[in-house]
Amino acid sequence: MADVYRRPPVGSKVITPHQRTDSDPQQVHVSLAGKDHIQVTWVTNDKHVPSVVDYGTRPGEYAASATGVHTSYRYLFYKSGKIHHVKIGPLSPKTVYYYRCGGQGQEFSFTTPPSSYPIEFVVAGDLGQTEWTKSTLSQVSKSDYDVFLLPGDLSYADTTQPLWDSFGRLVEPYASQRPWMVTQGNHEVESIPILHPRGFKAYNARWPMPYGESGSTSNLYYSFDVVGAHIIMLGSYAKFDAKSDQYKWLQADLAKVDRSVTPWLIVLLHAPWYNTNVAHKGEGEAMRKALEEVLYKARVDIVFAGHVHAYERFTRIYDNKADPCGPIYITIGDGGNREGLAREFEKLKDPSLSVFRESSFGHGRLKIINETHAHWSWHRNDDEFSKQADEILIENLAAARTCNADNTVPDEAQSKFTNDEL
Ligand SMILES: [Fe+2]
């Protein structure tokens, strides 16, 4: 049950200024880029800086070096800096790598994900750049985690391009240390008739994800594997009807999933399919109608969404009814943006579906303990000691005999979970 906590009003916008030289790296962030590889992205105002990353496992000692590519873009009167993308690896699991971008400037470091359970994901959508965003990121950094998952709405630049740069600088202390995997929200579209009709100009240039590695032809939808989890990032703002490339790609991607290798099947998208908040009511309905059956038949474990600036956790659902073989739906669009909270929830028509809902900023943590069990928790920002306001132990659907005709996960997997592992 949600408690009666009442939040103060939304925090003001935070601009993170550029305080380094033009040739120094800024807006540094890393993402997973195929098996054992990481992509390093950064921006320089100086176009002569090479797209090179030097890296190694000891501070100041760079045993390896890799060269990548660069891009830039124009948007109305704005011209971006030089945006560098360099893929490095193969890298060892659960290892700290120290790295330098463009052959100069400060040293950064990141930790690679582990190669075996447990693995912990942070999930937070609709971040923006306000005092609340800072509060969320500060709470996130108080406990360790392996990979950051962002279900859309990053900078809230909304066509004011320098705000993309400011956002990159705001998140750098976090996104340079752990892989950030994102999908797009409505605030990433930024389309302009005739000039930028297809949209996503800044998003695609600044936050390219490993879509090619998963057979996708679009940065707007892709998938990746990490420690027993196959994670699918869907595009709420790309076509998703049965004739669309996204639909065909999703079918092909799901057909390749081997639940004995990746028992956990997790989907992220932006506009929620299930939502009892008054905000954005029904906006995910067309996508739900197009894709819900596909995800249900694949036995997706969890669907995370953003867009609604509140937290809401549903039970397992299929076609608007509780179903033990459907995904758990979680709305986590509460990262802390300038639009504030979605405070008004509607009266529940079916109280059995929406389990927990609260209009507060915060973040979620999904700790996958083993093949059969994961722990989900939601952490409200203002709890001084990062109290879990909501939590649930989740059983994997591939391990549930009643939902799995193939029984691809053997019975003995069920017995591996013990309370000590929590
Ligand atoms: Fe949104």
TrEMBL record:
Question: Domain of life, per the record?
Answer: Eukaryota
Looking up SUPFAM superfamilies in the UniProt record yields: Metallo-dependent phosphatases, Purple acid phosphatase, N-terminal domain
Q: Does the keyword DNA repair apply?
A: no
**What are the start and end residues of every segment in region (Disordered)?**
1-25
Q: Where is the Purple acid phosphatase C-terminal domain?
A: 326-383
Which cofactors, if any, are listed as required?
Fe cation; Zn(2+)
Q: Which InterPro entries match?
A: Calcineurin-like_PHP, Metallo-depent_PP-like, MPP_PAP, PAPs-like, PAPs_C, PAPs_N, Purple_acid_Pase-like_N
The residues covered by the Calcineurin-like phosphoesterase domain are: 121-311
Similarity comment text for this entry? Belongs to the metallophosphoesterase superfamily. Purple acid phosphatase family.
Q: Can you name this protein?
A: Purple acid phosphatase
The record lists the organism as Kalanchoe fedtschenkoi
The lineage is: Eukaryota, Viridiplantae, Streptophyta, Embryophyta, Tracheophyta
